[in-house]
Fold dTMP kinase.
Amino acid sequence: RGSSSNSRGALVVLEGLDRCGKTTQSSRLTQYLEGLGHSVELWRFPDRTTSVGQMISSYLSNESQLDDHTVHLLFSANRWEKRSLMETKLKGGTTLILDRYSYSGVAFSCAKGLDLEWCKAPEVGLPAPDLVLYLEISPEMAAERGGYGSERYERIDFQNKVIKSYQVLLGSNWQIVDACRPMEVIEKELQETVLDCVKKCQNGAPLSHLWS
Ligand code: 2DT
């Protein structure tokens, strides 16, 4: 951990539809890296603990109504308010595993019909992930897993639109992971990929910024 002066932590993002297994896999991944002696933290967006996060949370649980553009900017602000801590951690050698990030921000808002470029704009300048793990699953299969809850967006027709917007965002640092397989198989695949990424960052791969 933190062996050379330019050694930094990796920024790893898990993305995918609701119920694709992001939360389970991101916490297992964190435990795995911790077990190997790495400095690592698991974060999730939206971060519902901040005041912006509380506005988002009440919107998601249908307790409040907000204009689509407004809520998009709140989600983005919720990332910006964590930006400096995120960069400090990474530069200090801590790897961050993020359960959702800007890709969810753009994919969900575009699925509502907002313009792609408009949605991407407020994310410009945020730290870019070194690796995006996209857990791929059909909305039907996701819904079978304990069923969707009562939060906004948890509907099959909407999730199908989200898939289409994710496809537009796919980049070279993405890895598509078949999330229909048993949990342990996925876990193993993620471990290998992430370890590789962590090593590259330790060896000085530079941190870039969205949208690169
Ligand atoms: P969780 O169920 O994972 O807490 O997600 N969302 C998320 C957006 O619309 N924009 C964003 O920027 C982010 C991070 C995805 C809550 C829901 O919020 C959506 C599902």
